[in-house]
Amino acid sequence: MFILKRQDVEIYSIQHPKKDQQVPVLRYQTQNFRLISVFSAAQEEEAKALWRDLTDNRGKACVLLEEPERYSVWGKIRLEQLEESVAPTAGELPACSVQASLLLLQAVYLDIEDMLGARQVAAFRKELFEAFRQHQLPQANLPEAIEQLLVVNPLALVQVPNWQEHQLQGLLQALHRIGKQHFGNANFVERAMESLQELPHQDREAFLKWLKRSQLAERWH
């Protein structure tokens, strides 16, 4: 549809109708757009490929925002239909599943740091970065972005990463494999699962239900 510059648009946030979080909205002229995906400045081709796929192949009304440090793709919405627009699409998981997975990730990371020391932590981070790269997780394709996900409270994220179910499954499979490799057994799983107590009860139950019916059930239980 359009390739726009930052000075062409207004970006603001509105309250999610069901959750205690803000939803970023881009306004161009009289139209509103919701954030779909963010790319680094070096990922111009990937950003344009997603934008073209959505507009040319899927018939979506989208804009590509070009900024000095990043590219972002936004999809058109009607604000009165925001509640429907923030519901997960096919293959996309609710935000609580991503938040829960990040809690598990941080718990394993801290466990390795506390119990195994700096050398093992460095190796874990390297292997983790490779897992993120392999599974092509949006908004986590640079080391500094992954560093943020290791330390920022997932429940305080303004924009929870928009990951597909197969991507999240791949990440959790890799996390289990890497954790078992470092600890020599799977005892770390029980300690990591305790971190899910930070989630609201309803979100925790929804994530555990998804986990139980997935191929991850034997690893994370």
UniProtKB/TrEMBL annotation:
- Per the record, the domain of life is Bacteria
Cross-referenced Pfam families: DUF7469
Protein name as catalogued: Uncharacterized protein
**Species annotation:** Pegethrix bostrychoides GSE-TBD4-15B
